[in-house]
């Protein structure tokens, strides 16, 4: 298999599509919770023109992205000009929508002539810089791959006790969040107490689970927010997916000696794709 993972720039390109899809993304910002707003429609990403764009519209995006409250709704391509389609213009959200696609606008692909060259792409800056996985998040860390561990059960987020968390559990969390390998597990509320409830059971991962919800739990324990667990992951990956309709699909590229290249499809199969999806 490794012999077939040859870095080439002119060859058959592998495209990978996974189950996690998203409808909105923030591009070219300094965190995943800030950037130029882009929406997915008809399998293609496009921008939003800033006419009528305000904090109410931005709040819907922040909520959809699990990024807290809207702080700013900059226009005039504050986060750089996009390219391709301009999908939405004159957006008018009432603030209760679960997704930006539900907000009123001029219609898909309809926009004022002044929007045509992406000089007025809308942006958003939200309050959170939390790295969200499907059932896990790291909060209040110095970067998106470190912070206080919180897990989702039902509709409620819980902090995890440091006495009930070990290296195997950390491996699952870092992998779920696309954050490489665990570097350090920290106790004693190293990243603050937060305001989540406390999870009262011990998590017992084997280390090969794809997400924390797959790990068994047992033994009720007593623990306070003074002893919640924090985690620092390496944040490093030498693989990425490029030019797909969402963050979990696209052309496979691998980094070698600080240079990115494509992967030949000669020996590529579903087993290799499954390994990549877990990373």
Automatic annotation (TrEMBL):
Keywords: Disulfide bond, Glycoprotein, Repeat, Signal
Gene3D superfamilies: SRCR-like domain
Disulfide bond positions: 93-103, 205-215
Signal peptide: 1-19
One family name in Pfam for this protein: SRCR
Assigned GO CC terms: membrane
Domain SRCR: 24-127, 136-234, 239-279
Keyword Glycoprotein part of the UniProt annotation: yes
Protein name, entry field: Deleted in malignant brain tumors 1 protein-like
């Amino acid at each position: 298999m490794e012999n077939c993972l040859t870095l080439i720039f002119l060859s058959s390109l592998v495209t990978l599509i996974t189950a996690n899809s998203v409808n909105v993304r923030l591009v070219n910002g300094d965190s995943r919770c800030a950037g130029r707003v882009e929406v997915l429609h008809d399998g293609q990403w496009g921008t939003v023109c800033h006419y009528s764009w305000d904090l109410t519209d931005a709040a819907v995006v922040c909520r959809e992205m699990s990024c807290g409250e809207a702080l700013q709704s900059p226009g005039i391509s504050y986060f750089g000009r996009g390219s391709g389609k301009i999908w939405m213009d004159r957006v008018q959200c009432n603030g209760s929508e679960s997704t930006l696609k539900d907000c009123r606008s001029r219609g898909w692909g309809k926009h004022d002539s002044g929007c045509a060259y992406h000089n007025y792409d809308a942006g958003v800056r939200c309050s959170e810089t939390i790295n969200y996985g499907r059932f896990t998040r790291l909060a209040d860390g110095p970067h998106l791959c470190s912070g206080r561990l919180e897990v989702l059960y039902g509709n409620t987020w819980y902090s995890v006790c440091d006495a009930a968390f070990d290296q195997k559990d950390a491996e699952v969390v870092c992998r779920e969040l696309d954050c490489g390998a665990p570097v350090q597990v920290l106790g004693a509320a190293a990243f603050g107490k937060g305001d989540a409830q406390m999870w009262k059971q011990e998590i017992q991962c084997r280390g090969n689970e794809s997400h924390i919800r797959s790990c068994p739990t047992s033994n009720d324990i007593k623990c306070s927010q003074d002893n919640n667990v924090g985690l620092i992951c390496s944040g490093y990956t030498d693989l990425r997916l490029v030019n797909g309709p969402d963050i979990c699909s696209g052309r496979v590229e691998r980094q070698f000696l600080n240079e990115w290249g494509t992967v030949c499809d000669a020996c590529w199969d579903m087993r290799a794709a499954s390994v990549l999806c877990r990373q």
